[in-house]
Design brief:
The chain is mostly beta strands. 0% of the residues lie in helices and 41% in strands.
Length: 245
C-alpha cells in the first residue's frame, strides 16, 4: 500500500452487491464478500474479524467478474486454521501484500491474474480438522480453471508448497507462471492432476527458485502432467529442471 495514505476504519464484514463498487483507502475490520461485477479494491487493508474467514478474507467464490485489487494488504488480525487470503476466480491482484493466513491465494476457477505481489507469512496449525498431518499451507493453491497467470511475485514461507496445483475441483488449462521468485515447500511447485489428465498449455518461464525446499533442489514436481520449462533457475544460477519422480 502506498505510503502516506490515510485510511478510514470500517467495522464488520462488507458484502458488495452493487456493480462497479470501488473501495478506496479503507481499513476494513471484517471480510469483503463480493457478489457484484467489476468491484475494485485499492489502497486498503482487509483484516477479517474474530469470526474467521473460512471462505477467505476476500471472498469471490461467487465468481463475480471483474474483481481487481491494487496496492492493498490482506492480513488476518485474528487468525485461525480456516483463514485464507483471497478465494474464488475472475479476479486480478496487483501489488498486494498477503500474509498471516494459511493460504494466501486460493484459485477455484478461470480468469485469474496474480501479479507483482508479496505472498508470505503462512500459518501452520498442528490441529487442523481438514488434515491429520497439520495445515497444508500454500502461497497459491489452484484447484480448477482456464487462463490463470501468476507473474512477477515473491512467494515464500509456505511449508507445503509455494504453488500447489491440483485439479481437485475441475480441469485446468492455459496456466502461465513466469518471472516469480519463490522458495520453501516440500517441492516449491507441486502438481497433482487428480486423475483428470494432463494440464493443457502449462508453461513455467523465467522463475527464480530458492534452495530451502524440504526436498533438496525440488523446484517443480509434476509426475503426471507435462510442463513447458523455459529459463528457470535457482538463486545460485543452477538450472531448475522438472522432476517427475
Amino acid at each position: 500500500m502506498p505510503a502516506g495514505v490515510n485510511l478510514t476504519v470500517v467495522s464488520g464484514d462488507q458484502t458488495i452487491t452493487k456493480d462497479g463498487t470501488v473501495l478506496d483507502g479503507l481499513d476494513i475490520h471484517g471480510r469483503v464478500i463480493v457478489k457484484a461485477a467489476n468491484v475494485t479494491i485499492k489502497n486498503s487493508i482487509i483484516r477479517g474479524t474474530d469470526g474467521g474467514g473460512k471462505y477467505g478474507l476476500v471472498d469471490n467464490m461467487s465468481g463475480s467478474v471483474g474483481l481487481k485489487i491494487y496496492d492493498s494488504e490482506i492480513v488476518a488480525t485474528n487468525p485461525n486454521w480456516t483463514i485464507n487470503g483471497i478465494m474464488g476466480w475472475n479476479f486480478e491482484l496487483h501489488r498486494v501484500n498477503i500474509h498471516n493466513t494459511v493460504d494466501q491465494v486460493s484459485i477455484a476457477g478461470s480468469n485469474v491474474l496474480v501479479a507483482d505481489s508479496w505472498l508470505h507469512g503462512n500459518l501452520w496449525y498442528a490441529n487442523d480438522p481438514d488434515h491429520t498431518d497439520g495445515s497444508h499451507d500454500d502461497n497459491i493453491e489452484t484447484v480448477a480453471g482456464d487462463n490463470v497467470t501468476i507473474t512477477g511475485n515473491v512467494m515464500e514461507d509456505a511449508s507445503n508448497a509455494a504453488i500447489m496445483i491440483t485439479q481437485g475441483r475441475a480441469t485446468m488449462s492455459n496456466l502461465n507462471i513466469s518471472n516469480n521468485r519463490m522458495d520453501y515447500g516440500d517441492c516449491t511447485v507441486n502438481v497433482s492432476t487428480k486423475g483428470r489428465g494432463p494440464i493443457a498449455g502449462f508453461t513455467m518461464s523465467g522463475n527464480v527458485f530458492g534452495t530451502n525446499s524440504t526436498i533438496s533442489r525440488c523446484a517443480v514436481y509434476s509426475p503426471d502432467s507435462p510442463v513447458n520449462m523455459i529459463g528457470n533457475t535457482y538463486t545460485d544460477g543452477v538450472v531448475a529442471v522438472l522432476r517427475t519422480k
